[in-house]
Amino acid sequence: MPEQPKPPAEAVVSPSRRRPVIAIDGPAGAGKSTLAAHLARRCGFLNLETGAMYRALALKAIEGDISFDEEAPLLALAEATRIDLQPQVEGNRVLLDGFDVSRRIRDADVTSAASRISVHPQLRAWMVQQQRALGVEGGVVMEGRDIGTAVFPDAEVKIFLDAAPEVRGNRRFRQVASGDARSAPAKPAETRDSDTQKAVLEEMRERDRRDRNRAESPLRPASDAVILDSTAMELAEVLARAEEIVLAHLPSA
Ligand code: DC
Questions:
Q1: pTM (predicted TM-score)
Q2: Ligand 1 pocket mutation pick from 112, 140, 145, 146 by most atoms within 8 angstroms of CB
Q3: Which CATH number covers residue 234?
C-alpha cells in the first residue's frame, strides 16, 4: 500500500492545544463585565469585552452619518476600521483607528446605535472573525452575547449570566445615580429619579428585544453553557459560584 502523505505541520496542531477560553454571555446589565474582569484576574487571562467593538463601530457610524439600518455601508465601514481592545485592570481600553474612545462609547447615543447595528448578519460575521483572531491563542475571558454559541463554540468554559430585567434595570440605575454610568440614558439635571429609573428599564428591555429576536446569533445560552441566574444573589456569591464553575472545567486554573 502506498504510504499516506503526511499532513502539513499546522494541521496536526489541534485547536484544543490553544490555552483555554472562558466565554461569558448574557443580556445587558447582568454583570458580565465585573464577572469577566474578576475571572481574568483569578486565572491570569486577558479580559476581552466584545460589546466594546460593536460600540466602537457604532461610534464611527454616528460620526460618519451612516445609517444604522443599512448593512452594506456599515460593512464597508467595518472593513476600513481598526478596533483594538487593550485589557486593563479597570476594563478594556478601546482604540478606534488608533484613538482612545473608551469613555465616549459608553454614552447613550452609542449604546442605542450599537444595539441597532448588531442585528446585521454580515457585520456580525466580520466581528466574529475579528474576535476569533483576538482569542486565537486562548488564555482569554471573552464577554458578549454570542461567544459560547458563535465566536468560540468550543470554549472550555461557558457561563450564561442572567438576571430578571427589573433587577438588571435597578442595578444599572444605581450606577447612573452614583455617576458611574455605563450604557445608560443620560440623566438631565431636572429629571426625577423615578423617571430615570423607568427610562433605564425601558432602554434595557428594548436592547433585550433586539438581542433575543435578531435572525443571526440571537442571544441564547449555548447548549453546554452553565446558566448562572444572579437575580437573588449578591455579587460575592456570583463571583464565588463562577469560580466553582471554572474550577470544575479547568481543574488547573
Ligand atoms: O455588552 P454591551 O452592552 O456593551 O454591548 C453593546 C451592544 O453590542 C449590545 O446592544 C449588543 C451588541 N453585542 C452583540 O450583539 N454581540 C456581542 N458579542 C457583544 C455585544
A1: 0.88
A2: 145
A3: 3.40.50.300
